[in-house]
Fold:
Amino acid sequence: MSSLNGAEGEATREWANGLEPVATQPPADSAAAAVTSANGLVSEDALPPMDLRSGYQMLINTIEVQQEVIDQLLERVGDLEGKQANRPDGPKSIDWATLTGPERGTAWRRLVRFVEGLVYRYSLQREILPCWWQHGDAVEELTALFSARERAYDVSADAGQPVQWHEMLERTRGRVAGALSSCRDGHVPHVLAHWMAEDVRQQLNAAINREGATQGD
Structure:
């Protein structure tokens, strides 16, 4: 059997004699490249170059600033929602399906004032015709626009809501003009006095009763 030489042979002889082999020291250049030194600090050679470290720090600072802005915006939104929820006198949407009596009359007067002001303010005489109040679809469109403006210009509204309202106005103008397109030479009443004939309505009611009975089973 060939003899062992060098550090390997010495370690083998120590092990054979019952001694713990002594670990060999790494070369000087390997020790310098270690991630941590004896006192637990990160070795300078293990860190990225200075230009990368500066870039990392700038990125961290930017993220922290953005997070502060996000937190402030979320806090502001929460405050606005709280103010709106705690205001029983705040603006409310008009629902013609539920309004009756004096409340309905008050809503009509408010809507009329709004539409007349809208026509003159935005020069909409050719789009919103004087017979608008005789067209249910135009009434609903203008009512929604009115309710949205009440909210957009409320004291608790965000500064960007008036801009959003004007975008809504632009979309609503085309729909209202379309609803009134048949009245360019004067109001044209709806041709159909009754949309659904009585026999068809009876068939509908019978179908609803059958559907209800099926669902109940």
Remarks:
- The helical segments are 6-16, 28-32, 50-85, 101-122, 136-152, 161-179, 198-216.
- The chain is about 60% helix and 0% strand.
- Residues 49-81 form one domain.
- Residues 5 and 12 are 10 Å apart (CA to CA).
